[in-house]
Specification:
Blueprint (H helix, E strand, L loop, with lengths): L1 E9 L5 E9 L5 E7 L4 H15 L5 E4 L3 H4 L1 H10 L2 E4 L9 H17 L10 H25 L6 H25 L2
Parallel strand pairs: 1-4, 4-5
Antiparallel strand pairs: 1-2, 2-3
Helix pairs in contact: 1-3, 4-5, 5-6
Length: 182
C-alpha cells in the first residue's frame, strides 16, 4: 500500500507551494516528494505513473484523503485502469493516513531547519555549522515529537511503525550530532 498526501507551504516571497508526498507503507520509503504551485488529478497521475515505471511495481492500494485532486474522475479512472484500489480515509481523519502525516511533520521540520541562511552569509562557517546542527537536531526532535504524540488508542501495528520510524530519526540525529562533535 502506498500513502499519498499533500502539504501546503509558502515561499519566502509569499507564494504558495504544494508538496505531493508518496510513501510506501510497508517499507516506510519516501517514494516521491514533488513540489509545484498547484496539483490536479492529471499531475498526480503523472507522478504515480513515473513511480510505477521507475520502480517496476505498482501498489495494490493507495491510501489518501478526499481532496478534489484525489477524488476526480481522472484519478478514479486511472486507478481502475491500473488495477489499484483507492483507499480513502474518512473526512477530517488525518490520523488514518498516519504514515504520510508523520512524514509530513518531519519533512517540514527538517526543511525549515536546513534551509536557514547562515547569519553572516555563505562565507559564515560558524553559521553554516549551526544550520547543519539545527538539521540534525530537527531529526532527533522529530522522533521525540512522534513518540510523544502516540495515543493509547493508536492501532498496535501503526504504533509500532511510528515507534520504529521515530527511533530511526533519533538514531540518525544522535549519530550525526556526535560525529560532528569529533
Amino acid at each position: 500500500m502506498w500513502a499519498l498526501d499533500f502539504q501546503v507551504d509558502v515561499t519566502a516571497e509569499g507564494r504558495q507551494v504544494r508538496f505531493l508526498n508518496i510513501i510506501d507503507e510497508y517499507t516506510r520509503e519516501a517514494l516521491a516528494t514533488r513540489a509545484a504551485r498547484s496539483f490536479n488529478a492529471d499531475a498526480t497521475i503523472d507522478v504515480l505513473d513515473d513511480l510505477i515505471t521507475t520502480l517496476g511495481r505498482k501498489p495494490q492500494h493507495i491510501r489518501m484523503d478526499n481532496g478534489p485532486e484525489l477524488t476526480a474522475h481522472a484519478l478514479m479512472d486511472w486507478c481502475g485502469y491500473r488495477g489499484v484500489d483507492p483507499a480513502f480515509i474518512d473526512p477530517g481523519s488525518p490520523w488514518q493516513n498516519g504514515i504520510c502525516e508523520s512524514f509530513n511533520v518531519i519533512r517540514n521540520g527538517v526543511q525549515i531547519n536546513t534551509n536557514l541562511q547562515p547569519p553572516g552569509g555563505p562565507e559564515d562557517v560558524t553559521g553554516s555549522m549551526a544550520v547543519a546542527a539545527n538539521a540534525r537536531l530537527a531529526l532527533y526532535d522529530g522522533g521525540q515529537y512522534l513518540l510523544a504524540r502516540l495515543q493509547p488508542g493508536t492501532p498496535p501495528d501503526l504504533a509500532e511503525a511510528v515507534r520504529k520510524f521515530a527511533n530511526n530519526l533519533m538514531d540518525i540525529g544522535a549519530r550525526s550530532t556526535s560525529d560532528g562533535a569529533r
